[in-house]
């Protein structure tokens, strides 16, 4: 229960060593217009300089004239914050000008703390409840398990789609998704041990959204490769040219997701911040996997002769691409010639 400055108060110092019986407050924190900790030019210890408003200056002058000649502890006054005495200086002379200086064996930090108490301790504060969520341990565990299952099902559906539509090329995407999943898991573990990151339902939702973002990156890249092959380029050349065209789209899409995550994190509270944090983290992981793993793996696959010929199970055959022939590179008399191969 907060103390009433208009009533007598029995209290103690912050360390509990000194006990006080205090009269009603003669000056309140709202009467202090400024308080600063300084080191005098000729001094060796810090002091706290105070400035009072008109009402505070008048009360300070009246009280200081009354008690400065009294014997200790009657000539002391208490600076009280949250019901405890922060400091208890005494008057050496009447203070008539509306400004005062508290001296003592203060360190720089002690003087600064006292100045902050005098300057900000009486500011009116109102706490508003932003969000209250009460979930039983059993229900929370069930919801978390259901969210994880939903994420795994979503991942499974994405894998099935990639394998059916892109066939052998889809294996590259699946392996990339597995790598991204491992990195994400390790990131969760590290962040949990370092900054206390907790996997909540909102965080799982962000991770599920990230699965679609990562899959989009693969689809954009693979479709660019297909477009290049349709224009008559070999698989190796198509992979290089397709990457140049795809990376701009991938970076633009990931930048939008990352920007949305940052805005949500800064402007939201509660579970939404967990969603935003996970979304931003997994978006950065998507960029790293696409550049450092997926592209090199596709370039490696492009060197395989079966992929280069456009076999039916590669996902790059002529029938699926809607062309009559697939361009291949052959060596003729010491130089490379590009020819087209028709799928039968």
From TrEMBL:
Residues 127-301 form the Protein export membrane protein SecD/SecF C-terminal domain. Signal peptide: none annotated. Keywords: Cell membrane, Membrane, Protein transport, Translocation, Transmembrane, Transmembrane helix, Transport. It is a multi-pass membrane protein. GO terms for molecular function: protein-transporting ATPase activity. It is found in: Cell membrane. The chain crosses the membrane at residues 144-164, 171-191, 197-222, 250-268, 274-293. Residues 14-124 form the SecDF P1 head subdomain domain. SUPFAM superfamilies: Multidrug efflux transporter AcrB transmembrane domain. GO terms for cellular component: plasma membrane. GO terms for biological process: intracellular protein transport. Gene3D superfamilies: 3.30.1360.200, Multidrug efflux transporter AcrB transmembrane domain (1.20.1640.10). This is Unannotated protein. The lineage of its organism: unclassified sequences, metagenomes, ecological metagenomes.
